[in-house]
Amino acid sequence: MTFKNSCAIAGIGLSKFGQRPGTSAMGFLLQACKRAVEDSGIDRNLVDGCLIAMPAVMGEQHGWATRVAAHLGITARLASTMDMGGATPIGAIQTAALYINAGMAKAVLVGFGMQNNPQGVPIAMMGSQFAFPYGDIGAITFMAHVARRQMHELGVTSRQYGHIAAAFREHASRNPEAQKRELFSVDDHQKSKWVVEPLRLFDCCLVTDGGGAVLVTSLEVARDLKNKPVVLSGAGQEHGAEMIFPGKPRQRPPGAYAADAAFEMAGVTRKDVDVAYIYDGFTPLVMHSLEAFGFCKRGEAGAFVESGALGLHGELPTNTHGGLLSEGHMYGVGHVAEAVRQIRGTAGERQIKDAEVVFVNGYGGAPHEAPPTCSFATLILTKDQGSLSRGTTS
Length: 394
Fold this sequence. Notes:
Blueprint: E1 7-14, H1 25-40, E2 49-53, H2 64-72, E3 78-82, H3 88-101, E4 107-114, H4 138-154, H5 158-172, H6 186-191, E5 194-196, E6 199-200, E7 210-218, H7 219-222, E8 230-241, H8 256-266, E9 275-277, H9 283-292, H10 301-306, H11 323-326, H12 333-344, E10 357-366, E11 373-383
Parallel strand pairs: 2-3, 2-4, 9-10
Antiparallel strand pairs: 1-7, 1-8, 4-7, 5-6, 8-11, 10-11
């Protein structure tokens, strides 16, 4: 038994975000949760669950989710702090639906909060003694390896990465909440400074303080709330070693099984997707994901993005809010929030006509530790076909 078409996203909330000193991770998180509850219109007393992403830079924090519930005044039947890196919010939405379907909760807040300065306790990285001497530390250097491999094996070019970054910035220019809205061209991308060659500044996501939250409940409950529900129709996960495997090569690229599971559960195909939200911590990750998720065949993603396919009027409109590269690094909750806006029809200048089937993915892991790991979590979100006259939005 799955939760296919039985649960829904009823509310979304983003805190203020950007370079925001002076507010704690908890402060951002509580603001986002409050806005998600208000957006849904649900009676706060019906919210009985909290699934919260572990703040990556805060060190050991036992009971983080329970403290969130206590601050919100929630009597929690379900409270858990989760960690799948950037895949956590998507995975937590899936977990919330499973608990609701099992009758263990009625309405669950999924959320995260991040404050990058100060960064809390120093991070101890396993296996770092083999990387530190070479300066090979963290996600940026790892993704530079991925980019080199794509360039060598698949003929991907830096200009093609530039097409991804420029497209998402154009989308962000239409998003009044985006952290970066100034337009740039592919030529501008090519002139931007190296961060870790071959990655340039515009190939890398933003550093963002902020929080986000999603309210998940049953479809039955959601239909009686403020907005038309956004239905959870398909989901998948995949966990394992990274894209640069330390041993035997994979049969299929990382993320392929997570995408297949979501499409199979939802009963839709890649061609049915009206708009996609692909985790874009770095442009090479987008290039990888387009092929791994089946939107392109192997070796075709470079030409695909160069054709303008990711634009608002392209074959696969992607990250219409600007993504992690331009809206802000909202841990994937920004992707979910924009997906909900698209299905509700409230995305303004960024609205994709007749958006009814939306693909969303989250990605996380520890590329700087040994062995390097990754997590993919996927969702297919759809319009509720059974609530034609309910709600206040179209």
